[in-house]
Write a structure and sequence with these properties.
Number of domains: 1
Number of strands: 20
Order of helices and strands: HHEEEEEEEEEEEEEEEEEEEEH
Shape: elongated
Distance between the termini: 110 Å
């Protein structure tokens, strides 16, 4: 009887009990959602920082390797204009910016001196560099050909660097035939080097060098016969002969590489990236290649050995427009401002430090906070040019 009454009295929950249960359930669900959202935000933040750090390290390592080997133009090491014999002709549209004798060339972006406020901006449009006063440099020799900047589309808040050097392994020059003026010179070399037609070459006997183009290459067994005529573009000036006539000598491929910050497809709304452009087989720049995304700005200082002492020590670090002799550059200090590629990775704009300026919106010489929700970090390294710092 008692059992029957107990079951009969269980008629359900009251309205108050139901409301209390719903509130408790909603409170629990809200807590779970907040934990999920917080965890997801933290995960996006950490992922963005990890990717940015990985990109920054890769970009810095890549540039460091390229800079270390700059200025090597044959066994003579770093050459100067008065001992470099450039056989290339300006016929057939050869570019005026083909200047390997400098080894290192730089252009300073306007308004980006160290310590100068240069606030981050979204959707910065790229502009053409050739003839653009946005980038300046010193004229190392007013009486020589102009120090010409190549034509690419770059962001206007970042410096530009061009490195000249060699690629591949050198090969032995077996003979040099200096023909009469107006007739092409001919060299024979070790065919194992694999020289191809239209490639640019450095011939050196460790006392003097020639810059030439391999217009015709005929391989016969272990020997490659290379004719330095004018049948390719730009071709060789056959009225001029190679000065490296002594054997033994070596031959190696010439390479020039331009580094700048641009945007994919030249579209302003795309994230900025580090680009590189190498020599094409006609002496102009080949199509630029995107190396690493998320590089917002590249700032460069050049370490110059003004007194040319035997210790090869840096006397000052200068911007490109203050370098008066590029043969004195023995190191480069590079600063990269990296940004996360995706916006909205952090809930509020993040402060950062770059090139001697704090960007936190505090005023008093500090820069403004960025207008986006990306994370940023600077990467700095000083790289020695081995072929100059070692006195080669």
């Amino acid at each position: 009887m008692t059992k029957s009454l107990h079951i009969k009295n269980q008629v359900g929950l009251s309205l108050i009990e139901l409301l209390i249960a719903m509130v408790l359930g909603l409170t629990l669900a809200t807590g779970v959602i907040q934990i999920y959202v917080g965890s997801s935000t933290t995960e996006r933040d950490q992922d963005a920082r990890l990717r940015m750090q990985e990109n920054g390290r890769f970009a810095m390592n890549f540039l460091s390797n390229e800079i270390r080997m700059a200025g090597y133009l044959g066994c003579l090491g770093s050459i100067e204009g008065n001992v470099a014999n450039n056989l290339l002709t300006d016929a057939d549209g050869a570019d005026d910016d083909f200047q390997p004798e400098f080894g290192v060339q730089g252009w300073e972006a306007g308004g980006t001196d160290p310590g100068t406020v240069n606030n981050s901006q979204n959707n910065v449009a790229v502009v053409g560099t050739f003839g653009n006063g946005e980038w300046t440099t010193s004229d190392p020799d007013p009486g020589a050909p102009d120090f010409v900047i190549p034509d690419v589309n770059a962001t206007p808040n970042s410096d530009i660097l061009r490195l000249w050097g060699t690629q591949g392994n050198p090969g032995a020059v077996l003979s040099v035939v200096n023909n009469a003026p107006g007739t092409a010179d001919v060299i024979t070399a070790d065919s194992a080097v694999g020289i191809q037609e239209d490639e640019f070459l450095i011939i050196s006997d460790c006392e003097q060098v020639d810059v030439v183009q391999a217009c015709t290459v005929v391989n016969a067994g272990l020997v490659a016969t290379i004719t330095l005529d004018a049948t390719c573009a730009p071709g060789n000036a056959v009225a001029t002969s190679v000065i490296t006539s002594a054997v033994p000598a070596e031959v190696i491929r010439l390479q020039g590489t331009l580094f700048y910050v641009g945007k994919r497809d030249d579209t302003a709304t795309n994230s900025p990236s580090l680009f590189m452009a190498t020599l094409d087989d006609d002496g102009t720049l080949a199509a630029p290649q995107e190396v690493i995304e998320g590089v917002e700005s590249m700032q460069l200082l050049y370490g110059v050995n003004v007194d040319q002492d035997v210790r090869a020590t840096v006397d000052a670090y200068l911007t490109a427009d203050n370098v008066t002799d590029w043969d004195e550059v023995i190191s480069i200090r590079i600063s990269l401002l990296m940004q996360s590629v995706e916006n909205g990775t952090v809930p509020v704009p993040q402060a950062y430090t770059f090139d001697g300026v704090v960007y936190d919106g505090a005023g008093g010489g500090n820069g403004a906070l960025p207008a986006d929700d990306r994370v940023r970090r600077d990467f700095v390294n000083t790289i020695s040019l081995r072929n100059r710092a070692l006195g080669t």
